[in-house]
Amino acid sequence: xxxxxxxxxxxxxxxxxxxxxxxxxxxxxxxxxxxxxxxxxxxxxxxxxxxxxxxxxxxxxxxxxxxxxxxxxxxxxxxxxxxxxxxxxxxxxxxxxxxxxxxxxxxxxxxxxxxxxxxxxxxxxxxxxxxxxxxxxxxxxxxxxxxxxxxxxxxxxxxxxxxxxxxxxxxxxxxxxxxxxxxxxxxxxxxxxxxxxxxxxxxxxxxxxxxxxxxxxxxxxxxxxxxxxxxxxxxxxxxxxxxxxxxxxxxxxxxxxxxxxxxxxxxxxxxxxxxxxxxxxxxxxxxxxxxxxxxxxxxxxxxxxxxxxxxxxxxxxxxxxxxxxxxxxxxxxxxxxxxxxxxxxxxxxxxxxxxxxxxxxxxxxxxxxxxxxxxxxxxxxxxxxxxxxxxxxxxxxxxxxxxxxxxxxxxxxxxxxxxxxxxxxxxxxxxxxxxxxxxxxxxxxxxxxxxxxxxxxxxxxxxxxxxxxxxxxxxxxxxxxxxxxxxxxxxxxxxxxxxxxxxxxxxxxxxxx
Length: 513
Prior knowledge:
5-stranded mixed β-sheet
C-alpha cells in the first residue's frame, strides 16, 4: 500500500469529518496519479473492501472492466482545464470483493485543496430499494440545509459591519446637510460634496445585497444566446466613474462578438465583481506605482471556450492567501470593506455556466484572474438534437417549428405519416418525434408503431385535439408513447413537455458516454 504524503494527510485531516458523515459512498482520488487516497465508511460497504486496502490502488480497480473507457474520458476531460468543468455523472458498475458488480450512478467532481488537484467520486447505488434511496435523498437535503445555516452564521457578523458603515455615513451626511441648510443657502458644489458620500454608500449597500442574493439563489437560470463581448463592455461602462475617481486607466482587447449561452445579468455581475476587487486593492492610499494604475481586459476564443483575462497592476495578493481567494467569506480587506462574497459568487456563476474561474497569477507585476465559458457554437455542437414534427395542418407545423427551433433543436417537418417515414430514412439521427393522431394516408399510432420498430430509442410526443381516442388504444400502443400534449396548448404546457424532452435526452447522453 502506498502511504499518503504530508499534503494528502493535511487535506484528509481537514475534510475527513465531513465526508464520514455522508450517507453516500465517497472515494477521493489524487488527480496526478489517479490513485485512491480516501474512502468513507459507506464506500467500504458498497465495494466490500476496507479503506486501508483501497488506499493506494488505481481508481480503475473500483469498477468493472467496461468502465475503463469512461474513466479515461473523464481524466482527459479534466486534463484540458481542471477548473473549467462541472461535475459529471455516468452509469457504471462497481466491482465488489465477491466479484459481483453493482450498478451505480457515479458523479465525478474536481477539487483543489492545499494546491492539490483531486477528483471526488460519489456513488448512488441503483440496487437499493426505494426506501433507501429516499433516505439518502433526505440525508443530502439535510446536509445542504445545515450548510446553508452555517453560511448564515458566518455571514452575520461581516454583514453587520458592512451595513453599519454606509448607514453611518448616510446618517452623518444627512445631519451635516441639515445643519448647513439652517445657516443659509448652499452652492451646487457644497451640495455635491455632501451627496457624493451618500450615493457611494447606497451603491455599496446595493452591491452587498446583490452579492448576498446571488450567493443564495441558483446561478445559470434563463440561459440565452448572449454576446459576451458586449456584456464586458457594458460592465466596464458602469465602472468608468469609479475608475476615473481612482485614476485607473482601463485598456481592453475585445475583438468580439463572442456568443455564449448565459444569463446576461449574472455574467455582468462576474465582470463587476472581479474589476471592483481590483479597484479595491488599488484604493489603498499606501499603495503607489510610478507608471500609474492600470486595468486590462482581454478576450479570446480557444478550443470552443471564450477566455477572458482581467489584469491589474495593483498590489499582489499575499502568497499565503492565494489558494483561498475563491472561498466564501474569505477576504484580505479590513472589516467593513467587504464580506468576501464577490469572487465566490463569481465562481458559482461561472461554474453554473459550465465554465471555470481561477487566479492565473499574482506577483509584483500585477494580478490576473481568468475565466472561461463554452461558446455558443460549442454548446450547439454538443446539444443539438434533431426533431421530426408530423402534422397535416401547415400552421400547426409552423408554430411547432418556430418554438422548437428557438429551443436549439434542428427541426424536420412532414405533412403525414408517409412523408414522416421517408424523413426517418433520410435522417436516421432523429431523436424526438412530435406527431398528430388523425392524419391522412397514415394515422399517428400506425406511424409510431412503424418508427418504434426501426428506432426504438426515439422519444414519442403525441400532440392532438383527440387525446380521448387514446383510451380506445391497446396497452402495448400506449406503452410506445412517452408524453402527450392536447391541442390547443398553452406556453406553460408546452414548456412542461420540453422540460421532459430535455431531461430524457440528457439522461440518454450521460448513459451513452
